[in-house]
Amino acid sequence: MIRRPRILYLSPCWPHAPTHGGQLRALHIGRALSQISELRLLTVAADSPDEQTRRLTREEFDLRGEIPATPLPAHSWRHRFGRALNPRQPHASGLMAPSASAGLLAPLLAETDLVWFGRLRSASVFDRWHWPRSVVDIDDLPSAQAEAEALSSPGAGRLLAALIRRWIALRRERLLPERFTVLAVTSEQDRSGLPADAAVHVVPNGFERPCLEPHRRPSVPPRLGFIGLLAHEPNREGLAWFCAKCWPEIRARLPGVRLRIVGAGSDGPARPAAPDVDGLGWQANPAAEIATWSALVVPIRTGGGTRIKILDGFSRMCPVVSTTFGARGHDVAHGQELLLADSSRSFVQACVQVALDPVGATAMADRAWRRFLQEWTWDAISPRVWGAVEDCLRRSGRVPAGPVSS
Fold first, then answer.
1. Region 315-329: what's the mean pLDDT?
2. Domain range list for the chain
3. CATH number of 6-206+378-395, picked from 3.40.50.2000, 1.20.1290.10, 2.40.160.210, 3.40.30.10
4. pTM
């Protein structure tokens, strides 16, 4: 009998925490790894879960422990400056694990064929630079995040700070092949930003395949919708831009229109203070709500990685209006799977178009749905996870007798 590889998975969040983009990726990466290996799970999270989250995680995964990620102690500005300039500084995330975690981690590493890090942060909390037999799922490329901040920074000070962060991130990213055996990113764009000699696999973001084909029931008067955590700065910034620059004109052109916001924090003080905006809070299953929307808006202009909310809209057969940056990393075209608009005027026009032309909007959403089924379900993406595992095992000298996916 062929022994399945033993994989230690360090997840950056609890896989069964309330739904958000990072949680969904952590959950489905864990499920893909479980299909091909004896998987052990360690969580490396800043927040403690509720009992239901912990119970569901234990029921699905072999949970070996939880490592809290806490901020680094305060130091002088000279110390912080020196740490930022040192590209081999392991605590690049600004977080650290308690010293006792070394005793938990060491025996697990000793019996492991491969360690999979969900995000760079999961490795950077430890006092360790090099990780043999490892895959790091970068997800959000730090230099890409800093570049987006630089492009959208309104003032000289913020622009300079973003450019410095980008320079620091690029220096660290050039050294990633020294730290990890294999790198995983979410898009070809992010792959192109990494060293040419690195072993890089593209593992795109995805979404669960619905059990039934979605059926839309667009509301009259129309509704536009946004979904995402309002604690996430790119979401807050994009939503603030949309409400300030686009929403007044949309309201004038579409009488009775409402903006519906789904996500943690949307029913509290973080909800935009604009008329005709409904904050619905976090919803475990927003399918019925999204079915009433004329479009899902993605006015994102900063951040990194790829936006899971694009695929959320595709998976629910909901028309999507996005900035070009919001659709970054997805191989999509304006007018084919979604509408792309970057100025406030063009974004307004795109939102009005989908509301006033429901037949055309439905046809576009149907094209996006069919591509979603082919490329962006986790069933379609899992073989890419397995490919990264096989490559790491081979490069580490632990060649399996056959493809691990068999």
1. 94
2. 6-206+378-395, 223-375
3. 3.40.50.2000
4. 0.87
Q: Which amino acid, 133?
A: R
Pairing of strands 114-118, 95-96: unpaired
pLDDT of 289 strictly over 70:
yes
Instruction: Name the CATH architecture for the domain at 223-375.
Output: 3-Layer(aba) Sandwich (3.40)
Query: Out of 19-28, 57-66, 292-301, 317-326, which region has the weakest mean confidence (pLDDT)?
Result: 19-28
* Phi–psi pair at 121, nearest 5 degrees: -60, -35
* Of the candidates 343, 288, 350, the residue with the CA atom closest to the CA atom of residue 319: 350
Question: Does this chain's domain 6-206+378-395 share its CATH topology with 223-375?
Answer: yes
211: phi then psi, degrees, rounded to nearest 5: -65, -35
For residue 401, the model assigns a pLDDT of: 45
- pLDDT at 1 (0 to 100): 46
Asked if residue 221 has a cis previous peptide bond (ω within 30° of 0), the answer is yes
Place 83 in a pLDDT band, splitting at 50, 70 and 90. Answer: confident
